[in-house]
Design goal:
This protein folds into two domains: about 10-105; about 125-290, Intergrase catalytic core (hpI Integrase, Chain A, Orthogonal Bundle), CATH 1.10.443. A three-stranded antiparallel sheet has the order 1-2-3, with no helix packed on it. It has 15 helices and three strands. The chain is mainly α and about 300 residues long. Helix 3 (about 25-45) crosses helix 5 (about 75-95), helix 4 packs antiparallel against helix 5 and helix 8 (about 140-155) runs antiparallel to helix 10 (about 195-205). Strand 2 and strand 3 (about 185-190) form a beta hairpin.
């Protein structure tokens, strides 16, 4: 028995809301949205293609919310899935498949409250130095490409999907400006200064001026063609360079996290950093602000615990 019951007549001719919604997603977010939808329909007990999204009302969305909680998902992931659900409902509403009242009541389901530390880790400045040196010590074309890619991920705070989507025309070597197409097709400017700009200059000397992808796949023989890399290739590059430099493994998002943290530690305004990172909300940026934790760590040293112990 399904957790939400619909009449058979409601399931016979389901408008293509799912396809309409997915068609609007960027290549970088399509997989995540599909996973969200599959988790939602698993709660309901109906296949995604057969789900009458336009028939969902507030009692249904409340049931879905509770089902996601009981499934044991983290609150941050539940809220992401609820955001996807609201997006599906908005698609149905814009297609005039729902009334305005039904739509607004259905999306009124509240986010799940909670608090957690950001996952992943911060890559220290010393580790980044070691990684960049490993790239510089590689005389092959991959060495220059990887140095410039890491320079963009760390120096510009780009998401991996944003980095692989860059075109040669997105970069202005005269100003160091890099046009980044972020989430929701929103554009922002990143600035490749100092070492980041020099790394890009070295890579462009090898890559050449042919229009197309800025970062391209390179085979073991050092040959390449101008086509877009995959996001998985970015993971593989970072794994390879971390092993070479003796640095603990890290993800592309960890470089983005370090971009935010290091700028804030250097005294950059949090509102400016939020815009540089392309965060939709300054609250997201605050989650990576460790300045308060540093102060708490120093304060804890002021408290003396009177225990000598035998451990050396």
């Amino acid at each position: 028995m399904n957790i939400i019951e619909f009449e058979n007549s409601e399931l016979q001719e389901v408008p293509p809301v799912l396809n309409m919604y997915l068609a609007k997603q960027s290549k970088g977010s399509l997989r995540a949205r599909t996973i969200d939808i599959n988790n939602i329909v698993e709660i309901v007990g109906i296949e995604a293609e057969a789900m009458p999204w336009h028939m969902l009302r507030n009692p249904h969305t409340e049931i879905i919310r509770q089902g996601l909680i009981e499934a044991g998902h983290k609150y941050t992931y539940i809220n992401r899935m609820l955001s996807t659900l609201r997006g599906m409902l908005k698609t149905a509403w814009l297609a005039e498949l729902m009334t305005t009242d039904d739509y607004h009541r259905a999306i009124a389901v509240k986010d799940v409250r909670g608090e957690s530390l950001p996952t992943g880790r911060e890559v220290s400045k010393g580790e980044i130095l070691a990684i960049m040196q490993a790239c510089e010590n590689d005389p092959s074309p991959a060495g220059a490409r990887d140095a410039s890619l890491i320079g963009v991920l760390y120096g510009g705070g780009l998401r991996r999907a944003e980095a692989v989507a860059l075109k040669l025309s997105d970069y202005n070597p005269e100003t160091g400006e890099l046009v980044v197409s972020g989430k929701g097709n929103k554009e922002r400017l990143a600035y490749m200064k100092n070492g980041g700009g020099r790394a890009l200059a070295d890579w462009l000397n090898i890559r050449g001026s042919e229009p197309g992808a800025l970062f391209v796949p390179i085979n073991k023989g050092g040959n390449f063609e101008i086509k877009e890399m995959t996001t998985q290739a970015v993971f593989n590059i970072l794994r390879k360079r971390s092993i070479e430099s003796g640095v603990a493994e890290f993800s592309p998002h960890d470089l983005r996290r370090s971009f935010v943290s290091h700028l804030l530690e250097a005294g950059a305004d949090i509102s400016t950093v939020s815009k540089m990172a392309g965060h939709a909300s300054i609250e997201t940026t605050k989650r990576y602000d460790k300045r308060g934790e540093t102060a708490k760590e120093k304060a804890s040293e002021l408290l003396h615990v009177p225990y000598s112990g035998s451990a050396k």
